């Protein structure tokens, strides 16, 4: 049995833990070929086991048999505990641990079933989401060995808490009381409970009979009481050794005491430990082991991968408690402690990823040199891996990625969101997913998806399967419609798609709450129809298949009913907690490690990335069940302890020989605040040397990586001048205004025949609103302009299936008064002898080979036989001076066509009025609409005849210069604001640069 003094060592933080451990054990026990093989090493995680295996290979060469390496589990209780130890007597069998998904489903059902009196019930997806937090609380109670009976002991202390915390406490107490009975009925126990029992049984067995010649517990920092007892058992064994990582043996005694107590003192309820300090969890572990820091010895073995010895006292000083940071002023020369440390600050996280990838790529230039990115920011890790791929370098992110971000999981989430809320954007994204119809048939499938995309674009799409089918039939029947050919090509294909998917997703289409398993079966059937077996292949596909299987085995557990609209959030929450780790096979000298994976491992160059607050340390999510005060009373770890663990991970990685710390000024598009670790480092060490590659700044290289070489040569303002044969001989009245305001836009739209794609959205947009109002007024005029016809059209507008809930709530209440204002004005003017005689009337006029076309919203015959031309606007009307300046010619040209008798269905007559009817409330005047003529009053054009003549002159000048002449189509007034063709004209390269066109208006005929 052991000596009276426990055998506990610490490997200093600057040492490469795994390599120093291997070197020390080889020195101690490699007294023959089988010396090491007679030992046992207990490690905290599978990643630690891999690191120690690699260290033995590096240190021992060939012909060395390693000790047995076993894993006792990680601090993260969400990860299953693997105990690869000797078989134990079946007579003392411990019940199996319940599957994590099944437990969550059962806890969700428990949350639904049991509600304190007077509290609102929690059901469906909300219960499922809260079940994750409830399971975490139960695990933490097991973890700290807090008996559920303790919950009742602090009932009287709830009076000072907010009401919602008291309600949460009452619900939690009820659930914790009910859970053991529910769990026992399954024949399982909680995973954390099972781990405690296993570790205690191992501890008892080892005290009686040590399992090997020597036993080493290495790298374990978890302070759970059961693990602490096991470590104490190992430390007491003959040949037993506990090796801790980075315990600060040089910290002054008063600083060590300032970290706080390891056990709550009833006489000092206000005394709180400094759990954010990187040494606190080690102090807590030693306290629970019954070992003082003075009993811990320093591990003497070193390795070629160690950092400088001065890094250890520097790191200790860096994380000094706030009461002791005054020692920074007496620290003296700190340069030895930061030797080999460099820093890089990037403009944003995209450039940060580029810079890190450059440094990792540069490390490969030196044979055998290794580099590792250490970061808790999974988004940064993904960007770096993608940036390295540009050089055909494949590097594994050993921390994995959430299953919801892997292709199979992303497809499942896309399918679920589409099933819960039909939307054309989601439909196209779903049908175009890389896993859908993967194989030889995919190219043809994508052609059809692209055709469907074009057909669905445009206003007025009715949501739902029937709406898409109706849109395809409508476009296929109209040869003049945009997408006519595409609609005809996809009619049969869409029928198959709609039939297959709608049948599979019927439980979602019903729109009523359903059992989760029914919804899951529907998704599984739809996935099979879309992809066949492709979604279940690969490591991510197998993980998704396993998740479906686990849910299937848990049938009957979980919320009774879930609304289809809530199921996407439920699945997204589940998939975000499932990690998919890639199989080995990435680059042998480049690594991306999360904090768990970086523990005990080291590379030649350690890049500590994402040092912004909220990224490292990561932002802590509040516990929905336990208030911080209740956690302290129960003796549970505060959420801040995770920040202390993150600080310890930072210290371990920072103590390497070559270190680069990086951060971004902006993250996710928003300004970022430097991490507390970065701020401490800057305050203690000052400005660190800039990271450079072959003499060049990494920050500058990252910013210039995608910038073309050579001097920048901005484009000049474009002035296309196509030949006369390419210029159109037909122009509409709106085209005349476009040509007057922006010749380049006219050139792009009418000569190049380019146009912006309509949005792909089921919701009405501004364009649809305008078209729908014009249709309303046209149909009303066709029906006779009566009050009954107006009410009928208004009822049809209210029931239009293309209106979504937002349009019904906000747009309809605003447009109805304006439509009624227009009707009342029409009725009042009819009494005075003004009669609408045409709606949507088309006119054509030809002059010198140029055909002018136009369509008038409405033409009225006045009492004296003259004509009035009306144009409806759902927004503001053009300014009063626009017609005089030759920029607003639409009404004047329509008046010209009507005056010459060239408007269909309208006899020639003099033009008395040209009016814009704005169907928009005028708050200043207290009206729901307004009439804005192009002439009269204070306007420069006094009569309608003046406006017609000015429009004709503008039309003649424009056609002579641009359609019949050789005028160049330079950008006009629209260049001063963002418009459709900015990219085509390369606007940002020339606008505002002070050329001649910006100093004076371009000469053009107006």
Question: How would you describe this protein?
Answer:
The chain contains 36 helices and 23 strands. The strands form 6 sheets. It has a 6-stranded parallel β-sheet with strand order 3-2-4-5-1-6, sandwiched between helices. Strands 18, 19, 20, 21, 22 and 23 form a 6-stranded mixed β-sheet that branches. The protein is an alpha/beta fold and 1006 residues long. Helix 1 packs across helix 2 and helix 16 (442-456) packs across helix 18 (484-504). Strand 14 (666-667) and strand 15 (670-671) form a beta hairpin. Mean pLDDT is 87; it is low at 74-84 and 999-1006.
Outline of the structure:
The chain is an alpha/beta fold and 1006 residues long. It contains 36 helices and 23 strands. β14 and β15 form a beta hairpin.
Question: What's the alpha carbon Rg, rounded to whole Å?
Answer: 38 Å
Distance between the termini: 104 Å
Count every beta strand, where a strand is a DSSP E run of 2 or more residues: 23
Number of helices: 36
The biggest sheet amounts to: 6 strands, parallel
Estimate percent helicity: 40-55%
Mean pLDDT level? 87
How much strand?
5-15%
* Spatial order of the strands forming the largest sheet: 3-2-4-5-1-6
Going by helix content, strand content and strand pairing, the class is: alpha/beta
Q: Which geometry do the CA atoms define?
A: elongated
Question: Would you identify the regions where 5 or more consecutive residues have pLDDT less than 50?
Answer: 74-84, 999-1006
What's the multimeric state? single chain
């Amino acid at each position: 049995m052991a000596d009276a003094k426990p055998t506990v060592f610490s490997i200093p933080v600057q040492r490469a833990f795994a390599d120093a451990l291997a070197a020390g054990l080889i020195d101690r026990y490699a007294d023959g070929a089988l010396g090491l093989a007679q030992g046992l090493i207990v490690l905290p995680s599978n990643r630690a086991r891999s690191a120690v295996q690699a260290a033995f290979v590096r240190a021992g060469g060939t012909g060395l048999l390693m000790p047995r390496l076993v894993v006792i589990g990680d601090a993260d209780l969400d990860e299953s505990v693997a105990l690869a130890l000797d078989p134990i007597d079946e007579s003392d069998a411990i019940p199996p641990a319940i599957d994590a998904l099944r437990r969550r489903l059962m806890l969700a059902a428990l949350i639904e079933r049991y509600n304190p009196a007077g509290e609102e019930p929690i059901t469906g997806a909300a219960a499922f989401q809260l079940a994750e937090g409830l399971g975490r609380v139960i695990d933490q109670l097991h973890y700290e060995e807090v008996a559920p009976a303790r919950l009742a002991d602090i009932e009287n202390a709830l009076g000072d808490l907010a009401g919602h915390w008291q309600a949460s406490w009452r619900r939690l107490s009820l659930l914790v009381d009910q859970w053991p009975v529910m769990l026992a009925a399954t024949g399982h126990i909680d995973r954390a409970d099972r781990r405690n029992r296993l570790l205690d049984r191992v501890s008892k067995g080892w005290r009686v009979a040590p399992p090997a010649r020597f036993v080493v517990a290495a790298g374990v920092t978890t302070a759970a009481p059961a693990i602490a007892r096991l470590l104490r058992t190992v430390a007491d064994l003959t040949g037993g050794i506990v090796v801790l990582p980075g315990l600060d043996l040089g910290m002054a005694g008063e600083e060590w005491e300032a970290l706080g107590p390891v056990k709550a003192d009833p006489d000092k309820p206000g005394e709180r430990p400094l759990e954010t300090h990187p040494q606190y969890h080690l102090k807590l572990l030693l306290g629970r082991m019954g070992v003082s820091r003075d009993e811990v010895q320093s591990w003497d073995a070193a390795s070629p991968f160690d950092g400088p010895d001065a890094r250890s006292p520097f790191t200790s000083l860096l994380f000094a408690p706030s009461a002791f940071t005054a020692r920074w002023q007496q620290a003296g020369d700190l340069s030895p402690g930061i030797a080999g440390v460099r820093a890089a600050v990037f403009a944003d996280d995209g450039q940060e990823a580029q810079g890190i990838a450059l440094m990792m790529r540069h490390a490969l230039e030196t044979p055998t040199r290794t580099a590792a990115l250490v970061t808790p920011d999974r988004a940064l890790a993904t960007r770096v891996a993608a940036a390295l791929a540009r050089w055909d370098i494949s590097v594994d992110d050993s921390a994995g990625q959430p299953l919801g971000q892997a292709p199979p999981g992303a497809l499942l989430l896309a399918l679920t969101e589409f099933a819960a809320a039909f939307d054309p954007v989601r439909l196209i994204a779903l049908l175009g997913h890389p896993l859908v119809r993967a194989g030889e048939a995919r190219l043809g499938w994508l052609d059809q998806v692209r055709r469907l995309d074009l057909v669905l674009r445009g206003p007025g799409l009715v949501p739902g399967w029937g709406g898409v089918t109706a849109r395809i039939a409508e476009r296929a029947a109209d040869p003049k419609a945009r997408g006519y050919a595409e609609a005809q090509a996809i009619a049969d294909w869409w029928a198959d798609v709609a039939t297959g998917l709608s049948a599979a997703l019927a439980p979602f289409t019903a729109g009523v709450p359903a059992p989760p398993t029914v919804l899951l079966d529907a998704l599984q059937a739809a996935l099979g129809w879309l992809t066949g077996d492709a979604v279940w292949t690969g490591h991510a596909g197998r993980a998704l298949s396993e998740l479906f299987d686990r849910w299937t085995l848990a049938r009957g557990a979980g919320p009774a009913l879930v609304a289809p609209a809530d199921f996407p959030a439920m699945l997204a929450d589940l998939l975000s907690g499932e990690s998919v780790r890639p199989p080995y096979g990435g680059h042998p000298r480049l690594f991306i490690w999360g904090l768990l994976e970086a523990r005990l491992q080291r590379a030649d160059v350690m890049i500590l990335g994402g040092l912004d607050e909220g990224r490292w340390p990561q932002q802590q999510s509040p516990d929905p069940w336990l208030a911080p005060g209740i956690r302290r009373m129960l003796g549970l770890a505060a959420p801040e302890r995770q920040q202390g663990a993150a600080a310890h991970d930072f210290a371990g990685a920072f103590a390497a020989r070559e270190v680069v710390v990086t951060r971004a000024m902006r993250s996710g598009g928003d300004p970022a605040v430097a991490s507390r670790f970065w701020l401490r480092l800057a305050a203690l060490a000052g400005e660190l040397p800039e990271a450079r590659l072959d003499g060049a700044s990494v920050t500058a290289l990252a910013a210039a990586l995608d910038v073309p070489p050579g001097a920048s040569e901005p484009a000049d303002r474009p002035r296309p001048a196509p030949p006369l044969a390419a210029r159109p001989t037909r122009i509409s009245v709106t085209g005349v205004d476009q040509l007057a305001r922006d010749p380049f836009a006219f050139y792009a739209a009418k000569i190049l025949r380019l146009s912006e794609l309509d949005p792909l959205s089921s919701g009405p947009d501004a364009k649809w609103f305008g078209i729908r109002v014009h249709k309303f007024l046209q149909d009303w005029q066709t029906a006779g302009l009566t009050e009954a016809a107006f009410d009928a059209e208004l009822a049809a507008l209210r029931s239009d299936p293309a209106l979504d809930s937002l349009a019904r709530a906000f747009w309809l209440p605003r447009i109805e008064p304006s439509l009624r204002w227009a009707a009342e004005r029409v009725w009042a003017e009819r009494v005075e002898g003004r009669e609408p005689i045409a709606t949507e009337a088309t006119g054509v006029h030809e002059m010198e080979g140029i055909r002018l076309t136009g369509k008038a919203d409405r033409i009225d015959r006045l009492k004296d036989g003259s004509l009035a031309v009306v144009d409806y606007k759902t927004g503001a009307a053009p300014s009063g001076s626009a017609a005089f300046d030759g920029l607003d010619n639409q009404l004047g040209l329509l008046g010209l066509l009507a005056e010459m008798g060239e408007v269909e269905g309208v006899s020639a007559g003099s033009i008395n009025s040209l009016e814009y009817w704005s169907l928009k409330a005028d708050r200043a005047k207290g009206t729901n609409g307004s009439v804005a003529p192009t002439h009269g009053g204070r306007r420069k054009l006094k009569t309608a005849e003046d406006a017609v003549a000015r429009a004709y002159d503008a039309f003649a000048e424009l056609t002579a210069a641009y359609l019949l002449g050789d005028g160049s189509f330079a950008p006009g007034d629209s260049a001063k604001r963002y418009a459709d063709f900015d990219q085509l004209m390369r606007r940002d390269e020339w606008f505002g640069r002070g050329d001649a066109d910006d100093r004076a208006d371009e000469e053009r005929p107006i």
